[in-house]
Amino acid sequence: MTFILAEDAALKTMLQGITVSDDSNPSRPVRVWYGFPDVEIRDQTFPYITIDLIDIIPGNDRQTWGYLTDTDYMGTTTAQEGLVYSYHVPAAYDIVYQVTTYARHPRHDRAIIQQLFNLFPSKYGYLNVPVDNNTYGTSRSMFLDGFVKRDTVDGETGNRRLLRNVYTLRVLSEMTPAVALAATQQVASVKINTNKSYIPSEYYPV
């Protein structure tokens, strides 16, 4: 996985260990879903958590320029002894997520809040990214930029309470030159469907 996709998967993995308890179930798992636009097929049962990617901001305040030089032969998977690798400094980005929790039961709501504030400290937070291409994975610095409580009454279900909390997270990441190059590769070929039955009347094959 690469830039953004790795952080998406890591954040979902972090949140999948949340559980709550009640009289019916002493250990009820809180399910985690990607929100809009990454709609998943799901049976939405309370309580649950959604993850939304809401912004990608250039990290200009921490961006440096130049080249990194790798002399320990650990920078690439094809490293050969005696070779030195030099490559551009990656481009810095802040990835901003909105994590929203939903619950009906006040006890569930409070238990989720307590556990998420342990995972999302305002300072010194981090996100483990085990899918990175090395033995131990890496970690990204992560900050809690905001918390808002948005409890409402759900009129569609008989005026039941909907206990909702919204966390804004900022994950410090970077795009490597290799990822950027892959994203800007030229189109090698273009295939055109000339079957007129699938082409609207206002269009025509080139």
Commentary on this structure:
It is a single chain. The chain is an alpha+beta fold and 206 residues long. 16% of the residues lie in helices and 37% in strands. The protein has three helices and eleven strands; from the N terminus they run H-E-E-E-E-E-E-E-H-E-E-E-E-H. It has helices at residues 5-15, 106-119, 177-183; strands spanning 19-20, 28-29, 31-34, 48-58, 67-70, 85-88, 91-103, 125-129, 138-149, 152-154, 160-175. Strands 3, 4, 7, 8, 9, 10 and 11 form a seven-stranded mixed beta sheet that branches. Strands 1-2 form a two-stranded antiparallel sheet. The longest helix is centred in the middle third of the chain and has 14 residues, at 106-119.
Can you tag this structure with a few keywords?
single chain; 206 residues; alpha+beta; STM4215-like; 7-stranded mixed β-sheet; two-stranded antiparallel sheet; 3 helices; globular
